[in-house]
Amino acid sequence: MDLKELIAAIEPADKAWADKAWERLRSQIRPRGSLGRLEEMAARVGSICRTLQPDLSRKLIFTMAGDHGVAEEGVSAYPQEVTAQMVFSFIQGWASISVLASHVGADVRVVDCGVAADLPPEWAVEHRKIAKGTGNIAQGPAMSWEEAERAVLAGAELVMKAAREEGYRLFGTGDMGIANTTPSTAIVAAFSGKPVAELTGRGTGIDDEAWKRKVQVVERALEVNRPDPDDPLDVLAKVGGYEIAGLAGAVLGAAAAKVPVVCDGFIATAGALIACRLVPAAKDYLFVSHKSQEVGHAAMYGLLGLEPILDLGMRLGEGTGAALAMSLVEASAKVLRDIKTFEEAGVTDTGH
After folding, report:
1. Tens digits of per-residue pLDDT, 46-85?
2. H runs (alpha helix) in the chain
3. Among 251, 333, 350, which Cα is nearest to 40's?
4. What is the DSSP code string of 309-347?
5. Can you give the C-alpha Rg of the chain in angstroms?
6. Looking at the domain that runs over 59-330, which CATH code has it been given?
7. Fewer Cβ within 10 Å of end Cβ, the chain: N or C?
8. Residues of the chain above pLDDT 90, percent
9. What is the pLDDT of residues 245-283, one digit of tens each?
10. At 184, is the secondary structure helix, strand, or coil?
């Protein structure tokens, strides 16, 4: 499958099923609208899954990992080797995403999209490395168009295979990559046209001097590369990252497989933004998990027109916010499926 075929395979969610879902939700044994946003989520799940009996109990999070040449500009508080070290922590099951995914009953798969180190082949990761880290976006493009497309397709293929062959019904996306808030900031700056300083956060906790340097680096990346906001693949290739491309592909893969996908915070939403610019219908399948503390995140979900589910002051990444929000998306499916209607329960309906 090439990118054109993937794009062609994506259809909008089914509005007729959304209408059926709302009809059932309004007929359930409780006051109309009393479950608030859970009802909105339930109607979306009905339209995505094309059923009033959705089962989202099989949950899988893909944590995409990649390194960035821009790390050499001093934009992160951590050295680049931490990316591979954290991948090892994920597969050992002792990292934050491991604990929170286990809590909500979700599986986790780590994908090497572009880690700078050679990960041992026996490590329990999906080995989809495009290259050992991107180019330094402050000096030139992150990757070629061909590499960007390969990384997008890798993410899409992983989700489609898991949905179609393994029976997973609800997906989450997360990231790992030292310095990856810098390309994510460049992406939202390219699409929004807002001043870089308004979109730049402190990532892993950089000080004031490093923050000023980060703003300058993003501004230089945009000036050097001139990404075309009307061409999402151009933006991705020029100022993105391999894991961001994989995250974009995961959203497209979920849309193609007609299953819901919950993106994590700042980096995962950058990938989702690329996906939804490539295929606007992909937004129908997407839930934004939480409001990241990264200041540019609000601009991202504003461009998507989607309201995040949670606001817990989180800014970790890895898929941690997605894990927690996936539990609520699954809960909304159970609301649609399992709460009886007045007629089914034999309860008098007062019409309120």
Report:
1. 999 999 999 999 999 999 999 999 999 999 989 999 999 9
2. 3-8, 15-26, 37-49, 82-92, 96-104, 145-165, 181-192, 196-199, 208-225, 232-239, 242-257, 266-278, 297-304, 320-338, 342-345
3. 333
4. SB-S-----TTHHHHHHHHHHHHHHHHHHHSPBHHHHTP
5. 20
6. 3.40.50.10210
7. C
8. 95
9. 999 999 999 999 999 999 999 999 999 999 999 999 999
10. helix
The predicted pLDDT at position 202 comes to 87
- pLDDT at position 135: 98
Phi, psi angle pair for 60, to nearest 5°: -140, 130
User: Which fold is adopted by the domain 3-53+337-345?
Assistant: 1.10.1610
Catalytic site residue from 73, 149, 318, 330: 318
CB 265 within 8 A of CB 315: yes
Cβ-proximal residues to 270 (8 Å cutoff; 6+ apart), any chain: 183, 184, 187, 188, 240, 244, 247, 300
Measured distance between the N- and C-terminal CA atoms of the chain, rounded to whole angstroms: 51
Contacting residues for 176 by C-beta, under 8 A, at least 6 apart = 63, 64, 65, 66, 83, 86, 87, 90, 110, 243, 317, 318
pLDDT by residue (tens digit) across 123-154? Answer: 999 999 999 999 999 999 999 999 999 999 99
User: Quick one: tokens of 119?
Assistant: 């990960």
Q: CB count, 10 Å around CB of 281?
A: 13
Active site residue 294: no
Instruction: Taking residues 335-348, report their average pLDDT.
Output: 96
pLDDT at 206: 86
Which residue has 């944590």 as its token pair? 63
Q: What distance in Å separates the CA atoms of residue 161 and residue 156, rounded to the nearest whole number?
A: 9
- Domains of the chain, by residue range, sit at 3-53+337-345, 59-330
Residue 351 pLDDT > 90, yes or no?
A: no
Alpha-helical runs (H) found in 93-144: 96-104
